[in-house]
Write a structure and sequence with these properties.
This protein is mainly α. It is built from ten helices and two strands, in the order βαααααααβααα. It has a single domain, classed as CHAD domain (Alpha solenoid). The protein has helices at about 10-30, 35-55, 55-60, 60-95, 100-135, 145-165, 170-195, 200-230, 235-260, 265-280; strands spanning about 1-5, 200. The longest helix has about 40 residues, at about 100-135. Strands 1-2 form a two-stranded antiparallel sheet. The two termini are about 15 Å apart.
Length: about 280
Amino acid sequence: MTHRGTRKEPPTDALYEATLRLVDGAIETLASRQDDQAVHLARKATKRIRAALRLMRQSLGTAIYHRENRRVRDAARPLTALRDAFMLRRALRKMPSRSAPLEHGLKFEYRREREAFTRQGSQAALTQLRAARRHLGERGPNARQVASTAEAVGETYRAGRKARTRARSNDDPALHEWRKQTTYLLNQLELLRAVFGFDVKKMRRRAHTLAATLGDDHDLSVLCAKLRRYDATTPRLTQHIQRLRSRLQRRAKKQGRKLYRHSAKHIKATLAANFSKLSG
């Protein structure tokens, strides 16, 4: 873990200011554009904002954390619905054979989500983000944010270790939860690098790789559900997806052993020591 140098803002201010900038960026993106790329960028921003809120959970207080996290989560819902509809069509294009009923069904779903987003989804997301910005802007930085950050990353790491154990069953909900916890960890590590200059390079890269692997498996899982919904299963397509998923899940388990090899206690202690140097 390395520190890239001093920052103009005190460590108690840096994360708070970075969170406000993330919210401002998401609002600006959605207010100016509504294309698929804008939706993708805004959705990524909401994930990063929620990661930042987790890092500030102790300093914000439980009630405020849950309130603002709920707002950002609700803002992300219409973004996620449109993103998923877009990604499923892209995933189907990579398949060796296609099903006309499934193609038509996914095309219909994408158009429906796009119309819903244009009609009300984008405005609903903006309303929630603006409310979060207003209430967070009234809070101000808190001296407990540094200690809160080290604790939060350790807890997210602990949750990821538990999710990895449950995901050994290859059960879709368990794999989905593991993906979520790994993505939370990745976003927090990215924030540590961007805000404080701490770069846990090996852990961050492993989290990025694992999150991508589990994300690909999740997309295929949803695609399988759509095949059944539209009665579009074919032996060739089903077998191909099953082979891909088996390969991805084996890869994820190998990657997960490397990422989650430490204890949460070790992660917390390492971060706390580095934050102590920064604060001093």
